[in-house]
Amino acid sequence: MAEWTDLHAADGHTCTAYVAQPTGPARGAVVVLQEIFGVNSHIRSVADGYAAAGYLAVAPSTFARVQTGVELGYTEADMQTGFGLKTAVEALPAPGVLADIQAAIDHAARVGGGKVGIVGYCWGGLLTWRSACLLEGLSAAVPYYGGGMTLEAEAARSPRCPVLAHFAEQDQWIPMDTVAAFRDRQPGVEVHTYPAHHGFNCDQRASHHAPSAQLARERTLAFLALHVG
Asked: Hey, which residues are catalytic here?
């Protein structure tokens, strides 16, 4: 079962979130952070997948502070639109969208009744890393090809929960030498790389690589089972 709900951040801002419920009692909860394309059909299917694995899944709209109801595809025009929205969100005064993610974590803990993990893709991967370092109430974090998280300013952060990071070896946005430097800087983070391109997890993108996506999912579910439940 899935529904949309409103999340209320500490600063009074309200954003919507897609919430997918497991069929039985939740073993824990997972916050799912979108790419730059909104909480679109792919992200909803990802949330549904975590619900099928037994978790309450909460996917907040991380664009809501600049534009509501965003649902993009994967054309070049969609990418430009999404990049512009992401740039606008990144320009917000701190804590900006992190306040909405904290509201999603709090909602997930309250409704799921257990521990909370967080998983994000592309820009959502970067936000997942920041959440692991800056927010409260997380027991695990799994960023997928987080754009920018291997840069010096981000790699210098200290995670407050266990982190599993997935990167693509043919990623034109995240050079492998920066991934190697991130791994050296963060020896406590479990880092895996895959023979794929950026966005390999998304089955609606040309860069989808099913074997890598499947292996990353297996590793992610094992990681969540260990740290969330």
From this structure: 122, 171, 198
